[in-house]
Design brief:
The chain is mainly beta. It has no helices and 11 strands.
């Protein structure tokens, strides 16, 4: 079993920054693909960024150049650095771990971008 706990969300003004963290426990973190998703009420959960076990990253077009995903295998943690935040970035952000047998999700952390 893998447990994921997100943190770092909050209320920020447009143009501001936040860093989300997702701490993993159980299993072998360094072998997992990790990703951040976000969801607004009434809509599907969408991929934001992903990082492979080898450190290769992918960011969706809407956040490219503003958000950066990274991982620290020594701390079993994946991060999402979010800069130049926009109101449309407001969502519940989830962390996902992809293992050989199944995917695991955290409980989410709310990000609200508003003046």
């Amino acid at each position: 079993q893998v447990q994921l706990v997100e943190s770092g969300g909050g209320l920020v003004q447009p143009g501001g920054s936040l860093r989300l963290s997702c701490a993993a426990s159980g299993g072998i973190f360094s072998t997992y693909g990790m990703a951040w998703y976000r969801q607004v009420p009434g809509k599907q959960r969408d991929l934001v960024a992903a990082i492979s076990s080898g450190g290769l990253t992918n960011h969706v077009a809407s956040v490219r150049g503003r958000f950066t995903i990274s991982r620290d295998n020594g701390k079993n943690t994946v991060y999402l650095q979010m800069n130049s935040l926009k109101p449309e970035d407001t969502a519940l952000y989830y962390c996902k771990a992809t293992t050989p047998t199944r995917n695991y999700w955290g409980q989410g952390t709310q990000v609200t971008v508003s003046s």
